Amino acid sequence: MENNRPLHVIIIDDSKRDVQLLVRALKRGGFEPDFLRIDSSEELTAALEDKTWEIAISDYHMPNFLVEDALHLWQENMGDAPFVVVSGAIVDEEAVSLLLSGAHDFIRKDKLARLTPAIDRELREVEVRRKRREAEQAVIQLNATLEQRVVERTMELQESLAALQKTQKQLVESQKMAALGCLVTGVAHEINTPLGIGITATSHLVNATKNLRDNLNSKQDDVHATTEYIKLADESLEMINGSLKKVADLVRSFKNIAVDQCSGDNRKFNFKEQLEEILFIYNPRIRNTKHTVSINCPDNLVINSFPGAISEVIVNLLSNSIKHGFEDIEQGKIEITAANSSGTLRLTYEDDGKGMDEKKVERLFEPFFTTKRGQGNIGLGMNVVYNLVNHTLGGQIQCQSRLGEGVKFIITFPA
To answer: Is there a common fold for 5-103 and 265-415?
Structure first.
């Protein structure tokens, strides 16, 4: 019997003879029982301090110990470890009552051949229940860990998102300031030219006036000199007047554009005049090229919208055409068309530049997408345009383009 399986078993029975029969039955069934016979509540309580018992086999009829009490003690200390009742005299109702109370099986003493298969089955089920409990506990622990990890990861993602949104906002503001800076540079250049002319004309006029004064003081009345002075004065004053008017127009247009972009207010304005002011300010960047820009818009088109947002959209589109669309193209053409249809303004912007392939068109409005990575471009210009059109203007923007066939933007928004 050296191959028999050890079995740590408590036998609750007041008959030593019956215990010997049970032990022989267990050995015949392939077990090598390490058993303890007890027949009282005190003995069972003391025995159960050892938690290594695998199974209890109990008689039903004992003079000093009720089987129900033994079952209760066993359950309190050993949980769902098997408790098998073996009896020679028990009615079916009593057996059913024991099974309902938690006993795992009932076997008659005249059918002990069923004992070892029943114990095998119960021990297997105990192992299954143990593994199931371990798996359930592992799942509970895993869920708790996962919940904690999800909470931690969510907090990390929220912090990262907040940081990204803050950074993107800063970059968008930098992009807007950069665009405004380009306009300032262009306006400064434009102002320098008429101011230079005005200063030169003023200098000539000052010198001529001094010479005339000297002649008058010396009483050298020269009609020819006086005539030449008047002619020079007229020319100089005309140049000064024209230059100052140009400076005033530039400053006024730039002020209007700058105020609109900074304030972001909604107001009523003439749309064609707004487009012309934008081009007037942006003109220095275009005039140094052979590119042309044309506007097709009714003179009396008045809308109620956000002129600052519209200016920023147009400036971004113009900048992209010149910087990207007309790269390596000497003479490009830009056409801006606007019309009001039933309260909706349809603005079409087209250039005949290099165009884009389908993949670039699909990604055009994504944040940080640029075709000039590594050349100082952060790729927020068209994302700014998208947000201005969709959120500020409450409209929509579509891009149509093919490689080598230019680009077309269709922008619609409430007017």
So the answer is: no
